[in-house]
Write a structure and sequence with these properties.
The structure holds two protein chains of two kinds. By secondary structure, chain A is an alpha/beta fold. Chain A is built from eight helices and nine strands. The chains are: A alpha/beta, B alpha+beta.
Chain lengths: ~210, ~325
């Protein structure tokens, strides 16, 4: 049977609804969570929190109250084997690119000659740009150079971004290499965000 | 009050016909400017709010820096300030004393004087200042002077609304909280001087309507559009982490709803990043539009004043007051 926890946050001032929701989602366990709040700011904030933690969120308004229904990432596997078996093959076939995250921690591909590595990296991006865009491209360490002005793969990265790929560049890395001003594409990000993308990805392809 | 409600209320005021009123309500600017003579104009502004930090002395400093900022944003120098105080009878008078001391110290730092004030009994404490300043009528900086090709410079990092919400939730480190307080209590005096010396074109200070709200006011008043580059926008430490947890003040969402489709976000700008750009600021920095040829000079002058400014975008030769946020 479905297992729904209800968290009634009516009458609570911000940021209490967010904190209570976070407390509930931080607890190990599966099942769905319904959060009830009485103001639109709490609805926006609880939705943002849950989505950033990688969960599925649907919210609706009824009678002046907001019901935020959160399906925890991985919750489907806990008690509903049948539905997982039904949906898994279909998802695998149709959304392989959408659920894939590229984790790129280098500006050149493979060990050996840096010149060859650069050619190979460009070749990888040419290939990637011809396929459906992945959910996200996470750039870490020298990987952030790929998104800088003058990068040999910039046009392909731009095509992937236009195709819907979220491009995140590690802010610490940009600062370390002193190239933050040269970032031509993508958002400056942090480990919290990068980890959340890795954590909720169906498939992570690491290019290190 | 949110921009939506405010603009509805102000619409019903009678139009003002006075040739000496150089800057009034119609341009949604930071302060009123009234011409007193051929080489002298009066800047008048008022600002007060409920405590944003627990420490009453710091709150006084922040409220005063915030009120003085409107004079700086117009290119003027503050002259005279009056306290505005709402205070509950159940709180000890020592706390009010600390608030007023914080405000007075900040006004002295600005080179102005406090000449009195007014108090009202209220359930919740509120503090701020009415400030009068002076400016040469030919050297007024309004939000209406931005020209196509100008670069946009922001003189303080964003995130005070989010960090203050995070402090209430006890999810912000002491260092990050301290940095936010220092930023809020900092005067915009050095930034104003640098912009005047560099010959910038337009200016506004970033407060309750957030970066995008005040940028939109500048675009509207100047008859242009703006492009803002997300990656270049400076943020207070821990702003993104705090925002990602959903610790965002309601004002950010009011600002977003008011601006509607005047703001467009490039794909890849997440809802969390959008909320940061809409975050209402307390005593935020100046948003300055400066010609490309003067940009280097402005950045140099800002740096010499110890101001960590960032170039965050440019003015587009497009009417319609649109704001495009790029990744």
């Amino acid at each position: 049977m479905s297992n729904i926890t209800i968290l009634d946050c009516r009458g609570l001032a911000c940021p209490q609804p967010v904190l209570k929701t976070k407390g509930e989602l931080d607890r190990p366990g599966a099942g769905k969570l319904q959060v009830i709040v009485d103001n639109p700011t709490a609805r926006e904030n609880v939705t943002l929190l849950a989505r950033n933690l990688g969960h599925q969120v649907e919210a609706e308004e009824r009678g002046g109250l907001h019901y935020i229904n959160i399906t925890r990432a991985g919750a489907a596997g806990a008690g509903a084997n049948i539905s997982v078996q039904e949906t898994a093959p279909a998802r695998a076939a149709s959304t392989s690119a959408v659920d894939t995250v590229y984790f790129i921690t280098t500006s050149t591909l493979g060990q050996g000659s840096p010149d060859l590595g650069q050619v190979l990296m460009k070749s990888l991006f040419v290939t990637l740009a011809e396929q459906p865009a992945p959910a996200a491209i996470l750039l870490l360490n020298t990987g952030v150079h790929l998104a800088l002005e003058g990068s040999p793969v910039l046009e392909f990265l731009a095509r992937l971004a236009e195709g819907g790929a979220e491009v995140l560049a590690c802010g610490t890395c940009l600062d370390y290499y002193r190239v933050r001003e040269k970032l031509a594409l993508g958002a400056v990000s942090n480990m919290y965000e990068i980890h959340s993308r890795l954590d909720r990805a169906a498939k992570v392809i690491t290019v290190a | 009050m949110g921009p939506q409600t405010l603009s509805q209320v102000l619409r019903h005021l009678p139009p003002i016909q006075d040739a000496n009123l150089l800057v009034g309500l119609d341009k949604s600017d930071d302060a009123a400017v009234y011409k007193l003579g051929p080489d002298l104009a009066l800047i008048q502004t008022v600002d007060f709010f409920t405590p944003v930090v627990d420490d009453p002395y710091l709150f006084g400093q922040i409220a005063a820096a915030n009120a003085l900022s409107d004079v700086y944003a117009m290119g003027g120098r503050p002259l005279l300030a009056l306290n505005i105080v709402c205070y509950p009878s159940c709180l000890p008078p020592e706390i009010l004393g600390a608030i007023l001391r914080g405000g007075a110290d900040k006004v002295i730092e600005a080179g102005a004087v406090i000449a009195g004030g007014h108090t009202v009994q209220d359930d919740e404490p509120k503090y701020g200042l009415a400030v009068a300043g002076l400016v040469h009528p030919d050297r007024i900086f309004t939000n209406a002077g931005a020209r196509p090709g100008d670069r946009l410079v922001l003189t303080k990092p964003l995130g005070t609304g989010i960090i203050n919400t995070g402090i209430k939730a006890r999810l912000v480190s002491e260092e990050a909280a301290q940095k936010a307080v220092e930023t809020m209590a900092g005067l915009n005096r050095g930034a104003a001087r640098a912009m005047a010396e560099a010959g910038a074109h337009a200016c506004t200070d970033i407060t309750g309507f957030g970066l995008l709200g005040h940028a939109a006011e500048m675009a509207e008043a100047s008859g242009i559009s703006l492009a803002i580059n997300w990656a270049s926008v400076p943020l207070l430490p821990e702003t993104m982490d705090t925002a990602a947890l959903g610790l965002i003040p309601g004002g950010a969402y009011s600002n977003r709803d008011y601006l509607g489709d005047r703001v467009s976000f490039a794909g890849g700008i997440t809802p969390t990043q959008q909320a940061v750009l809409f975050d209402p600021q307390t005593s935020g920095g100046l948003l300055i539009a400066v010609g490309e040829e003067r940009l280097g000079l402005l950045l140099d002058l800002l740096q010499r004043s110890g101001i960590d400014a960032a170039v965050i975008g440019r003015v587009l030769p497009v009417a319609g007051a649109q704001i495009a946020v790029t990744v």
